[in-house]
């Protein structure tokens, strides 16, 4: 206890350490934590000064943990998990009379699924706040669940057995064609698809879905662009730069004029909701899952 009293390590420093380690970038970590980049830099610098070691290599290619940084990050993650468990114990005591449910998701889920679920949840639990964090990939969402940054996460199924999951919906991949494309069809063939420069997502798992899918094609495919943002992909199609292969929810709403058609062979992504298995969850978390279960077209996807 004497050593703890002497040290001035703060939770904000540990949060910054884990965020930078996962994002490998100070600015992206700042966005995740919803603070300034200078605040993240100060937190890491002060933690390094407190511990007397260098935790990150800094360079043009981002920030990467040093060997001692890797070991410290393991302990920091454990501390944050314990603090999160303390918070959950308090939330359990409060029941449904207050607290926060933290939801990690990606953009298409935030746009098309969450608003209805949140509205329904607030009719049942008006005193519980919902905090939404949008992530680029399902991998960062699952890491948020592991480290206690999120209570509920939307991810791709199947997932690992460390999570308890429920299927929400199956989202078809579609082809988007430019407005001036003369092709008029709702079902594109491999040969027709091979005639377009293709625009695809550079993010996993979309990239890992699409590349093996295209490898089965009867004709060689030309991938012209790999883009991170869904909205950028749609805009590029709108400008006639190529055809895009995207999940339907990620593409919507489509600008007027862009043509939509089915792939030569169906391809789907399975979207599910997940919580950490064998963990302590507040009543608010289960209430939100119930609200999601009973929301519109997803009602038959989740078990009672």
UniProtKB/TrEMBL annotation:
Transmembrane segments: none annotated. PROSITE patterns: HTH_LYSR. Residues 9-66 form the HTH lysR-type domain. It comes from the Bacteria. InterPro entries: HTH-type_LysR_regulators, LysR_HTH_N, LysR_subst-bd, WH-like_DNA-bd_sf, WH_DNA-bd_sf. The keyword DNA-binding applies. Coiled coil: none annotated. The keyword Amino-acid biosynthesis does not apply. Pfam families: HTH_1, LysR_substrate. Keywords: DNA-binding, Transcription, Transcription regulation. Belongs to the LysR transcriptional regulatory family. This is LysR family transcriptional regulator. It comes from Floridaenema fluviatile BLCC-F154.
